[in-house]
Amino acid sequence: MARVVSAKRAPSAVLVLLLSVPAQAAPPDAYDTLSRLVGHSKAELVQRFGQPNDTITTIDGERLFYETLDTGRVGGVSGRSTRAGGPSGFGLFPGGYSFRCKTEVVIADGRVRAFNRSGNDCH
């Protein structure tokens, strides 16, 4: 008499291996880090992010400003021509790009109270 074997398959070794590997957590971005620093001291903020680009003292505390700026040119060719007896521009001029993020941190009583980020490169 023939033996009937179930059609169910055991999980593949690859799937078992994938499930047994812990997921890699993405590194926290600046927003997450700032969120965790609310309520902490100004010294902790400066230790984590460095000296601010600018500081304004207000009646109730300080405003610290951090700014990142990445600009440059991409593509194109430029040069000078001496045709027709004088120099003139010719060619395709490169395009420019600018990525910026400005972060304002509110300090009151020596502690981080709030922050605001603006720009096209805040992550």
Structural write-up:
- This protein is of the alpha+beta class and 123 residues long.
- It has a domain at 29-74 and 89-123.
- Helix content is 20%, strand content 39%.
- A 4-stranded antiparallel β-sheet has the order 1-2-5-6. A two-stranded antiparallel sheet has the order 3-4.
- A hairpin with a 2-residue loop joins β1 (54-58) and β2.
- It starts with 12 loop residues before the first helix and ends with a strand.
- Mean pLDDT is 74; it is low at 10-27 and 80-89.
Counted beta strands: 6
Summarize the main sheet.
Answer: 4 strands, antiparallel
| Total helical elements | 3
What is the arithmetic mean of pLDDT? 74
Strand order of the largest sheet: 1-2-5-6
As a percent range, the share of helical residues equals 10-25%
Radius of gyration: 28 Å
Secondary-structure element order, as H and E?
HHHEEEEEE
| Secondary-structure-derived class | alpha+beta
Terminal Cα separation, in Å? 68 Å
Low-confidence stretches: 10-27, 80-89
What is the 3D shape? elongated
How much of the sequence lies in strands comes to 35-45%
